[in-house]
Amino acid sequence: MAHDTVKDGLVVSMEYKLTVDGEVLDSSDEAGPLQFLTGYGNIIPGLENEMMGMKIGDSKNVTVQPEDGYGEFDEEAFTDVPRTEFPADMKLEEGLELHVTDEDGNHQAAYVAEFDDKTVKLDFNHPLAGAVLEFSVKVVALRDPTEEELDHGHVHEDGGHHH
User: Fold this and answer.
1) Where are the domains positioned within the chain?
2) Which CATH class is domain 78-123?
3) Chain-centre distance for alpha carbon 53
4) What is the dihedral angle through the alpha carbons of 66, 70, 76, 81, rounded to the nearest 10 degrees?
């Protein structure tokens, strides 16, 4: 069945550009349109909500506030870790992204905020926490998801890149 309007439970292909503070941080120019499955939290809520009802070929500029994007910046979301917990030969640098596992076994991304010989301060905020996100989006295609995609709650791209 052909669809022409964005609604829940469809796979949307969109061209997009993300601008923060006047700087383009991400766009679909290089990798081609991003596909996502609506209704499953594949993309940030502030953008998905605004795209509902758009038709193929429609373009829109959407401003997403932090609470509907990557969250507010949390001053508490820093942890000091002893330098000895990192491999001795690991080259640390500010802004380095690390993947850490918490007590519950959940994987999280953390960023090295600062470090010295004894302590490494990790920042668990998303890099875009607290940012106002300016999206320019265009709907280029809509389709029904496959059963597998619905089972998994996200799009399966053949050899595509994953965010």
Assistant:
1) 11-70+129-152, 78-123
2) mainly beta
3) 22
4) -160
CB 143 within 8 A of CB 149: no
How many CA within 13 A on the CB side of residue 35? 18
Residue 91: CB atoms within 10 A of its CB come to 7
Residue 34 CA to residue 139 CA, distance in Å, equals: 10
Give residue-wise pLDDT tens across range 100-142. Answer: 887 888 888 999 999 999 999 999 999 999 999 999 999 999 9
CATH of 11-70+129-152, one of 3.40.225.10, 3.30.499.10, 3.30.450.20, 3.10.50.40: 3.10.50.40
Residue 58 burial (C-beta neighbours within 10 Å; 0-12, 13-18, 19+): middle
For residue 82, the tally of other CB atoms under 10 A from its CB is: 9
Length of the chain: 163
Element housing 140 (H / E):
strand 133-143
pTM attached to this predicted model: 0.80
**Which is nearest to 69 in space by CA: 159, 129, 153, 1?**
129
